[in-house]
Amino acid sequence: MAVEFQSFPTQGICESRRQLHTPGSFARSSLFYVQEVGTLRSIQSHLCQREGLDSFLFILVLSGQGQITCRGISSSLSAGDCTLIDCRQPYSHQSSEEEPWELMWIHFNGSMARPYYSCFIKDTPSGIFHTDDVSLFSAPVLQLLEASARRDKTAEFICSKLITDVLTLCVTVPLCTEPANDSPTQDKLASIKEYIDAHFAQAVSLNSLSEQFYLSKFHLAREFKRCYGFTVGNYILSQRITYAKELLRFSGRSVEAISAACGIGDPSYFNKVFKKSEGISPSQYRKRWAHRP
């Protein structure tokens, strides 16, 4: 059930619109769910402090300025800035006196909330990033306000989808807007990835790529993982397994021949890594995915 508070005043400090929501048991166990979503316009500076909440908090600054403190670090925020917070830790936020801010926020949780947050904070250690297009985030927040007020059986699925959209943006927008402060390395990494895509079935390794592209293997390993989210070895293996699945489904080659064709010379090792990736052996994969009219 959702409870709505329209134009909620706090002793003349701010004006806000918010929705509080109590999720059902299925949403708690299987979906992202809203705990509270809303908008706020500060009339004067005020401080909000919390800790120990079983919740995650997304904030988008629409206008004005303020400060947020989390994990013992204080940062200034202004229009277009976003933050994602683990509310179990102590945190606070305060609008400026000179230019009080206007915010949108979502308090949410769910079975996959912490893995998403861990992925976000790994690439954005400050927990703060900027967007030049606030509508990317404001649109789903406004839809969440509307959807969380509904009391039919589709609302929680729609809310879960919208929270997923926001979290996807939290993970991807910072990566897409990182300054190109090392463009020669970025260009070389792109060339390395293209080379792997074309030659994964050959004897490609971190060492051979390091020699061919004149990068230290330690620098290459670190930067490739940072840029693409895979280690070099895992990316090569992923391309080989994908090609193997294509051959298993759409060719009559033996498993041994497919092992060699995708760059893994030892059939027993091929069976091992394939089963680790897919949960079944190559022969079982072929049988289950066989085309039948």
Written overview of the protein:
- The protein has 293 residues and is an alpha+beta fold.
- 46% of the residues lie in helices and 25% in strands.
- The chain is built from 11 helices and 11 strands.
- The protein has helices spanning 25-30, 113-123, 135-148, 155-176, 183-199, 206-212, 217-228, 232-250, 255-261, 267-278, 282-289, and strands spanning 2-9, 14-21, 32-42, 47-50, 56-63, 65-70, 73-78, 81-86, 91-95, 102-110, 128-130.
- The strands form 2 sheets. A 7-stranded antiparallel beta sheet has the order 1-2-3-10-5-8-11. Strands 4-9-6-7 form a 4-stranded antiparallel beta sheet, with no helix packed on it.
- Strand 6 and strand 7 form a beta hairpin.
- Helix 2 (113-123) runs parallel beside helix 4 (155-176), helix 3 runs antiparallel to helix 4 (155-176) and helix 8 packs across helix 11 (282-289).
- The model is unreliable at 1-12 (pLDDT under 50).
Give a brief description.
The chain is an alpha+beta fold and 293 residues long. The protein is built from eleven helices and eleven strands. Helix content is 46%, strand content 25%.
